[in-house]
Amino acid sequence: DSGVTQTPKHLITATGQRVTLRCSPRSGDLSVYWYQQSLDQGLQFLIQYYNGEERAKGNILERFSAQQFPDLHSELNLSSLELGDSALYFCASSVGTGGYYGYTFGSGTRLTVV
Amino acid sequence: GIQVEQSPPDLILQEGANSTLRCNFSDSVNNLQWFHQNPWGQLINLFYIPSGTKQNGRLSATTVATERYSLLYISSSQTTDSGVYFCAVVSIYSGGGADGLTFGKGTHLIIQP
Predict the structure, then answer these.
(1) How many whole angstroms separate alpha carbon A38 and alpha carbon A86?
(2) Distances in Å between the alpha carbon of A28 and those of A72, A84, A95, B47, B76?
(3) What is the pLDDT of residues A27-71, one digit of tens each?
(4) DSSP secondary structure, A51-96, as one string
């Protein structure tokens, strides 16, 4: 157990639907990151939050959004889902920012859009 | 943005063999990590190693920051070492506390019994 908790582990939904993925960071970590892993794009950084504030955006689609709550857990919202959104979505957490700390990854949410 | 290249892309070895995986990166970094993705998809943190050398059991890693490369060594391979090994970095030019990792494409390692 890495200490980063992601739910659900698996999700199957239809095109056009909206889903929410949840992440609880490791105790004491203030930064939360979301990553997408797909066969054609590999592992891509989506978005970063630090202590409730958005810090950086990567290759995140406009149909996707995220937030970090006061208790530091984070949610990734995916809407108007397409077949190509099927992927493994990882959450990671870190103590601080600036890249000077290691990152710990959760076990991922496998999303299948049918 | 920063580019990360890993080699070889695929590696098939017999149990007990040693291997060296390489990661080249295009800019100076303040974070470099090696991960192992097992067949169940879990990403396991092996090393946080922006510079220097570290060892953990049969695995060791060396990063030569001035020459922009890192090496992961696996000795006496076991079938459980199979999976994909990723190198991921954060460029020193990522400003404002932005530090999302940039991943390489990985090395797919298969250890045969």
Answers:
(1) 7
(2) 9, 35, 7, 20, 36
(3) 999 999 999 999 888 999 999 999 999 998 988 999 999 999 999
(4) TTEEEEE-S--TTEEEEE-TTS-EEEEE-S--GGG-EEEEEEEESS
CB contact under 8 A, A103 and B101: yes
Residue A43: Cβ-neighbour burial (10 angstroms; 0-12, 13-18, 19+):
buried
Question: Chain A interface residues facing chain B, Cβ-Cβ under 8 Å?
Answer: 2, 31, 33, 35, 42-48, 50, 55-56, 58, 88, 90, 92, 94, 97-105, 107-108, 110
Measure in Å the smallest separation between the Cα of B77 and chain A Cα atoms. Answer: 24
Smallest CA–CA distance, residue A27 to chain B, in Å, is 17
To the nearest 5 percent, what fractions of chain A are helix, strand and coil? 5, 55, 45
**B92 vs A4, residue with greater confidence:** A4
**Could you tell me the CA-to-CA distances from A84 to A21, A36, B95, B111 in Å, in that order?**
17, 12, 31, 32
Neighbours of A81 (CB within 10 A): 20
> Using CB atoms, which residue from A42, A99, A105 is nearest to B43?
A105
Distance (Å, whole) CA B49 – CA B9 = 21
The dihedral through the CA atoms of B25, B31, B36, B37 has a sign that is: negative
Tokens of B15: 């149990």
SS3 B54: strand
How confident is the model over B11-41, as pLDDT tens digits? 999 999 999 999 999 999 888 999 999 988 9
